[in-house]
Amino acid sequence: MKKPKKFVRAAGGTVWQDDSLLEWDPNDYRIFCGDLGNDVTDEVLARVFGKFPSFQKAKVIRDARSNKTKGFGFVSFKDPTDFTRAMREMNGKYVGSRPIKLRKSNWKNRNIDEVKKRQKEKDVLLGKRR
């Protein structure tokens, strides 16, 4: 029996298990979409980016209590060419009532194994030993 994959993350000195990452393809090309207005939903984001053939998923991050957007979301693609085209064509375009700001998502960099690896490399460069 295969154990389900766990996503243990680290950021800002905190470590936690993030089950929301199980919804995403681990080998996708993901864009961070910033400066989203409260009028932008998952469906709106999906409609805007759905014109790219390898579009997979769109998610607007919302506050659990108020259900208002936190002002950012993510869009994923299977093909790096569509990812690059979307970054180039959609950055600064209006989505809802605001121009969207796009960046390559760094979600993989927060994986606990990556954080430990980078810390180890940093310690080696600084001459520290563990």
TrEMBL record:
A Pfam match is RRM_1
Keyword Flavoprotein in annotation:
no
Protein origin, superkingdom: Eukaryota
Boundaries of every RRM domain copy: 29-107
The record's SMART domains line, in alphabetical order, gives: RRM
Keywords of this protein's UniProt record, alphabetized? RNA-binding
Q: Region entry Disordered: which residue ranges?
A: 111-130
Record CDD domains: RRM_RBM42
A GO term for molecular function: mRNA binding
Similarity field:
Belongs to the RRM RBM42 family.
Name this polypeptide is given = RNA-binding protein 42
